[in-house]
Write a structure and sequence with these properties.
heterotetramer, A: 646 residues, alpha/beta, Rossmann fold, 3 domains, eight-stranded mixed β-sheet, seven-stranded mixed β-sheet, B: 310 residues, two-stranded antiparallel ribbon, 12 helices, binds thiamine diphosphate, binds iron/sulfur cluster, binds magnesium ion
Chain lengths: 646, 310, 646, 310
């Protein structure tokens, strides 16, 4: 296979806490080392151990934009995984399972959701089959999938034998065995797999040895019993190119660090807290050469503060900001809901603070570890009173990196809360980034009208033409920050004339923001601007829809894609023009109410008539988007609900 | 020349009712600040919402008037961001022990070096006299449609259980004594509480000046050997039960003074310094965030652990 | 003057806590007794004692819809009131002041807001006058206002002398003296004033006597020194008709009690808590004859629970609802902000709970005791996740009464949070209601699919066609209420198929609601449906705009008024049709962002191009609305900001 | 026939990790319910969010799974609405003492008759092992990127300061003993706390089964005369200091058992009854709200005080 045609998709399923995560990482590292680009995304339940989760990976010469099913291969080593995924492998693909699981009855798989059990049982019943993993394997074979049963018990015993490690420890190599089998059959040479294992477990030599042994054994077994791959995968185009492998959580933390964050507060919540924990793990850092030299300073540190709740998280971030820190907090829907009152305070008191909002499936605790784009309304309209704030949504890892920096800039320049909208899919999607993708020297750090040495006449809320008052941090001169309506010096007043002036000042500030942030950063039209079909979406669907455009193009449907980046201040004219230019506009969102479409109509008056929607909490696929769009194009259907993924 | 308490007045009209205990508290605070000669430019006063919350407008300082119940977390953020500031969080009993009790308790786990001052009038003053968290059950102050059904909290005991390392109680009209308590609280390194009994002549017609003055006494006046310092396990063993007894005393007699001082715990700032070596010199609010507009950090250096390299 | 032409407006100003409230009530009662209808509204600061506040009253044979300035008379007995209101009296009207205040300098009036001081000082300077109360009186006279100086010290000493009461107590009759003077000059006979005093102070004989004495003295003084009124006011058309005098807070509490509320939670906040306190004051009640007979029960009681914060208030209300109580909570913007997360829970868990939201000026604590209609966005979009809920806004006291009942019905029928939007203006506006206005027998109490005796197969979240599952209270059979996504029995699931079904079920529920609540209850077109100018507004502006329509009609401008009553589910078709029928649509709101206009465009696509806005936190006037509309009609101006009132 | 503990199982898959202390707590609860023979139809279990919060799905009851930290106020609403139900509020240390500590404290002021059970594993389990409010400072459990900078709360002392009238501590793997504590707590009339030390083998690698079992002991085993009943001022005087000493003991030795019982305070339900005579017979959740679809109330009768009549 030629390098450029490489497009590999596979999944690894298994119980939560059973090493799926680690196996996925090894797989991704294998391909990065080999010179390819990757994405991997994890579907997991709100559970610590035992419930089914899986990791889906895609490998291409360029960065893959989306995962989708069916996959080329599946590593499904427990009965629940077999039964969950036996229809997810494409014809001609293969499925690696553990032969010892075959007899397991559906009824006996405790963690499997009852509705799925019922559906599967009915499915097998219809076909006159027993409700067991074995039947699933049978169906897979009937579907043209090569099923590869590994005698796991024996293999593990053999690893134990070879390495002298106790069985209990060796059994942790289960996934490595499955993975190595798969990678090898996909055409990856053993040496790359071993390298990746060594990189992954780094310092832990014993663990490396044990896993390498397991991989070797697996490959031997494949060679002996199944036959090796038809041919080996060529090295990818980026061989030797330095890459980081990062999740969305991590890239935002990296962006904030580069962006000059000095204090972050948080209260644990999925899928946000991994960002803060990662930040905390890197709170002490060396300055880059250019900075060390300029400042004559080698090291600095940021504070990451775990608070008692989200009320405290946002209030401490606000307090820190007022003191002069470049500050942020990070949360998900439930936590953000608790921050509403303080957001309103930050609007009124004009406090620069960034809120990173990692959306997940709601309402309420809903689907706490699943994808959702349901918090757009909430982000935009959070807080009582007239409640304008900057809301920016990132489409992918690279955007998230730069947006994290920009959000900090905007917060300080405009002295207002900035909501950085991201989501669970981005959070738990992992990809490679190269040096040119996240270049610190491409970023500018701005602090706006920061007054280092305010005089005694300093007025915190000075009425200015652009609506922005010079901002002095605490500790220089007596001043007042307040959530009450106030005169220029921050003293509270209920005077109707001043009230009107201050409302007008804050309004002018948003006019300034609207003017200063270029339209290009607010909305982006991808693809052929003259295409007569326009897909509209926002957030992490971006790379998925870009892939979908390619699929559609192959099918003869020419469409472009309007990505909304900033919801407030909204790029009204630009969006209206683009939409009015299209014959068919289709809104694509992962929520039920069509939140972006509503906002578009609210801001522009333009009514979108067609919708693609996914609300299952599972990653959106490029293929299902393409199919749904095609259906709408062909049938004029109003709404297509897609729901791929287990 | 040292500052006078007059230097801490802002000149704003003080909106409290005639005879309100808040006047005494404000004055005691100003006198304490003057005697400590604290530079208003380095002083931070954060207040919650309530009659008491207005204090921040009447004290020359870096003032912040936040949300009801949230003075403590805001003060926490400020102090962590700039540990070189003197930070005071003030609020009413409703603010600190009602809606804000979450933070009142949790700040104790940090022993952050801030001073918490409660203007305790046992009613929700600014919302016109509903029962506050320190109003005893079955009492019915004048604005209530019926008797209060909730028991009263004991802020001292709650502070102790929460980990405060300095706990005192004063009385609003005793300016000189209250000033001393506030001074000690500010000087204490760690989270300190000064609960100040504050008659509200407008709404609390039961816990009046007279009512208090028939009951209050000072620990150190009653017992000249009174020593609230609990610096060692031995101190703890020998003093804790009498301290607790005094903390719990409430009724015919109400003790005032410093109840408890624990000098042994690290402040949160000290803890941060231990894990962030540059913290004290370059705290979040007073450190560079850029070099000539460029980032300080090269991610390929700081996050090198994320690089995949064989 | 003929009965039908009576239209009296006057104001009473003074320091907070100085008896303005009581004087206002006496005035209102005087006119009610005399057979007229009244409204009185109070402007006050976030302060307990000393800051300036005032009470404006309007009297007509029919219920007055609005107050406005200038007034016919002003009672301004302290220097700050004189200086605040000397331009608020119309030519030919009169102003009653205390002569001892004349020498007071502006600079020495501590409570007066600095910006106002500055404006006044400049005003007098321009005219070469001293900055004193005396100058204000002078200007008033120049403006054709009759100024009546009362020697208050002497009068009070005289009352003391006559009644033998100590001066300190007698000085509380200050306002009575001013008021009696005014009422008398307005043509009210002494006997009515005395009656009203007796009614107002009811049981407290000594207070009655003292105040009656004061009133008599005032009237004597008027007769002797000023001359009595030109003529006496005739009795009003409703003489002897039984009326309640109630604030908006009270009428909502009354509505809830009639509506079968059994538990209300609250945390104190202005302008909400007076509602809860009033409820608490009436928590034990006798059953009406028809009910006592039907149930063989004489007395019942409701619980009113003060909680530690608003998080607890809403959660306890939710808990109570789940247990089977007909439950509600009541708050204002800041408290509502804290309830966001729990609202999301109530949406997901399908809990019937009413949230009465008394809006006030924001953002943040903003103008905590002033009018605002800034929480529409927040009400509609509160809570994370897709967040639909019923949102109903009341236009006046009578609507608020019935809406309070309907909100309880809808919450239980549709098992969803219902936000009842009211505001500070309604809260503190006081008016008379007659028996026919609030007739309990016109109300129906509905509880929806309440299952008293669920069997063991009961499914809490049964999937039904109308989206509504039978609801069993706790205590009958084991069941599960939850905020996680769930199967029909309430057990959590992350199954994608069930997720979709449950999202669809909840969506169907809102389709049912949209269908079942008639359009007539969602939006009301007042006035001539064929008028080509349509004013759009919502909430407490209703009676004000109805008055404005009359003024406009007199000026030859024919307009009608679309009152939005329910914002979700939104009456899309009806609103669109009405708006499209107009040549000119003008949105009238008391917020900065034009929140209703945005929602109208979001729901219907219809773009409103003209706006009248008031954001000073002061009561909206019919006259300023009419003037603003006229201006837009004549000049085509996009937006007119009005700002009447001190 | 009396119920067996098996009758309280729901048959749902129990999602906890192998060896998790929650299993013991669940079992102890079921055994306590069985021995008290509580009808699942009259039993309410409200839980917060966390591993522990899943308990409500595993116990046959009227279950409600609410928000993180909000089990207590929901339980409060339920109990007030229907005082005839047995109401239990359960949650983790993060849930009850972190985000929910506001309610944990405030419910003590009501002495409402509910049982609060804390599954105390000193970590945030479900969010993957961050420091919980009972984790001592400087300890670093395995998921933490650095040492814990916060001091640990003492839930027993906090409960005492807040007004709880029954305070006990158990240990998750001691099912029989913990069952007894839960039984007593449920039987107690008033707000009761059972803090249950709960090893989390997945994230708390410091406070393990072994760690606990080397330290725990039972108050009544050590002192056969141990009597936590504080029924009178005399009891208070004679017992309080030793009770406090035991409550504070934490380290090499960790006492278990019932620490404190105060039978003297009215429950909130009793208080409500005093001000609402019909409350007990016609509580909010079990009373008519209409008569044949018509309101029960004539406002002209009930709100007659608002009628203006000469
Ligand atoms: C979230 C929120 N809830 C309620 C209020 C209304 N509120 C303003 S002041 C106050 C209480 C004040 O009582 P306290 O804290 O004791 O202060 P005091 O007025 O007695 O000094 C309340 C409840 C608010 N501002 N914000
Ligand atoms: C408002 C809110 N914040 C954060 C979370 C995320 N969250 C879920 S479980 C949990 C902590 C659980 O810790 P704990 O209460 O101790 O229970 P455990 O899992 O240890 O039993 C958190 C923070 C949430 N669901 N809601
Ligand atoms: S209401 Fe009470 S606390 Fe508030 S200012 Fe008046 S006297 Fe002071
Ligand atoms: S993470 Fe800990 S508390 Fe949660 S289930 Fe696993 S062992 Fe139990
Ligand atoms: Mg108070
Ligand atoms: Mg825990």
């Amino acid at each position: 296979m030629a390098q450029n045609n490489v497009d590999i998709k596979f999944l690894i399923g298994g119980p939560q806490g059973g090493g799926i995560e680690s196996a996925g990482q090894i797989a991704l590292k294998t391909f990065i080392l080999k010179g390819y680009q990757v994405i991997g995304t994890r579907e997991y339940q709100s559970n610590i151990m035992g419930a089914h989760s899986y990791f889906t990976i895609r490998v291409k010469p360029e960065r893959p934009g989306a995962i989708n099913f069916p996959v080329d291969a599946a590593v499904v080593l427990d009965a629940e995984s077999v039964l969950t995924h036996f229809q997810d492998v494409k014809k001609g693909g293969f499925m690696v399972y553990d032969t010892t699981t075959l007899k397991t009855k559906i009824a006996n798989i405790a963690p499997m959701p009852k509705p799925l059990k019922d559906r599967l049982t009915a499915f097998f019943q219809e076909r006159g089959l027993e409700p067991t993993a074995e039947s699933a394997v049978k169906i897979a074979e009937e579907n043209g999938v090569k099923t590869i049963g590994l005698p796991m018990k024996n293999l593990i015993r053999e690893v134990a034998h070879k390495t002298g490690a106790p069985l209990s420890r060796v059994s942790k190599t289960l996934n490595t065995i499955g993975l190595a089998t798969t990678l090898y059959l996909l055409g990856v040479e053993a040496s790359w797999i071993e390298k990746a294992i060594a990189v992954h477990f780094a310092a832990k030599k014993k663990v490396v040895d044990m896993n390498v042994e397991a991989a070797k054994l697996a490959i031997n077994y494949v060679d002996e019993h199944i036959g090796g791959p038809c041919c080996f995968l060529p090295e990818g185009p980026n061989l030797g190119k330095e890459a980081m492998l990062v999740t969305g959580n991590e890239i935002v933390a990296i962006g904030k660090t580069v962006g000059g964050l000095t204090l972050q507060t948080y209260y644990p919540i999925t899928p946000a807290s991994d960002e803060a924990l990662f930040l905390e793990g890197h709170r002490n850092y060396d300055l880059a050469p250019w900075a060390a030299e300029a400042l004559e300073l080698k090291k600095l540190g940021s504070v990451v503060l775990q608070t008692e709740d989200e009320l405290s998280a946002i209030m401490a971030a606000i307090g820190a900001a007022v003191a002069g820190a470049r500050s942020a907090t990070s949360t998900s829907g439930p936590g953000f809901a608790l921050m509403n009152e303080a957001i309103s305070l930050a609007i009124m008191a004009e406090v620069p603070v960034v809120l990173t909002l990692w959306q997940r499936g709601g309402p309420s605790t809903g689907l706490p570890t699943r994808e959702g784009q349901q918090d757009l309304f909430h982000a935009l309209f959070s807080g009582h009173g007239d409640n304008p704030k900057i809301v920016v949504a990132s489409g992918d890892h690279i955007e998230a990196f730069y947006d994290a920096i920009k959000a900090l800039n905007w917060a300080e320049k405009y002295q207002t809360p900035v909501v950085h909208l991201v989501d669970k899919y981005l959070a738990s999607t992992i990809t490679n980034v190269y040096r040119e993708d996240i270049d610190p020297l491409k970023a500018q750090i701005e602090r706006g009208k920061l007054v280092e040495n305010p005089g005694p006449d300093y007025l915190r809320y000075k009425i200015t033409e652009d609506g922005i008052s010079p901002r002095a941090p605490m500790g220089k001169v007596p001043l007042v920050w307040t959530g009450l309506e106030h005169t220029e010096d921050g003293m509270p007043t209920e005077d109707p004339v001043v009230r009107e002036q201050m409302m007008a000042k804050r309004r002018r500030k948003f006019e300034t923001i609207a003017r200063e942030i270029p339209d290009d950063e607010k909305a982006v039209l991808h693809g052929d601007p003259d295409a007569k079909i326009t897909l509209v979406s926002w957030g992490s669907t971006k790379p998925i829809i870009l892939e979908a455009l390619k699929i559609l193009e192959r099918e003869g449907i020419k469409a472009n894609f309007l990505q909304l980046r900033i919801f407030y201040p909204f790029p009204t004219e630009k969006v209206r023009k683009i939409l009015e230019n299209a014959d068919l506009v289709i809104d694509i969102e992962q929520n039920d109410l069509g939140q972006a479409a509503f906002l578009i109509r609210g801001f522009t008056g333009f009514t979108i008539e067609h919708f693609v929607k996914k609300i299952t909490g599972r990653a959106l696929w490029d293929t299902e988007v393409a199919l749904a769009v095609k259906k709408i194009v062909e049938t004029g259907e109003r709404e297509v609900v897609v729901n791929g993924g287990a | 020349m040292a500052r006078s308490w007059m230097d801490y007045k802002t000149g704003a009209w003080v909106q409290w009712c005639p005879g309100c205990g808040n006047y005494g508290i404000l004055n005691a605070l100003h006198r304490a600040l003057a005697e400590l000669d604290i530079d208003p430019s380095r002083l931070v006063v954060v207040t919650g919402i309530g009659c008491s919350g207005r204090s921040c407008y009447y004290t020359k300082a870096n003032a912040m008037h936040v949300l009801h119940g949230r003075a403590i977390p805001a003060a926490t953020g400020i102090k962590i961001a700039n540990p070189n500031l003197t930070v005071i969080a003030e609020g009413g009993d409703g603010d600190m022990l009602g809606i804000g009790v979450e933070h009142f308790v949790s700040v104790g786990r940090r022993n952050i070096d801030i001073t918490v001052i409660i203007h305790d009038n046992s009613v929700y003053g600014l919302t016109k006299g509903q029962a506050g968290p320190t109003l005893p059950s079955w009492w019915r102050t004048k604005a209530l449609p019926g008797p209060n059904l909730h028991d009263n909290l004991n802020p001292l005991l709650l502070a102790l259980a929460s980990g405060y390392t300095f706990i005192a109680r004063g009385y609003a009209y005793h300016v000189a004594q209250t000033k001393e308590l506030i001074k000690k609280a500010i000087e204490h390194k760690g989270t300190s509480l000064v609960q100040i009994l504050q008659p509200c002549p407008t709404y609390n017609n039961l816990m009046t000046k007279q009512w208090y003055e028939e009951r209050i006494y000072y620990l150190e006046e009653e017992d000249p050997n009174w020593d609230p310092l609990v610096a060692s396990p031995e101190d703890f063993k020998s003093k804790m039960s009498i301290i607790l007894e005094k903390m719990i005393e409430w009724g015919d007699r109400i003790p005032l003074g410093v109840f408890y001082i624990n000098p042994a715990k690290d402040t949160f700032e000290q803890r941060l310094e231990k894990v962030i070596p540059t913290y004290r010199e370059y705290p979040p609010a007073a450190r560079p965030v850029a070099a000539n507009g460029k980032p300080l950090v090269d991610p390929w250096q700081v996050f090198a652990d994320k690089i995949v390299k064989a």
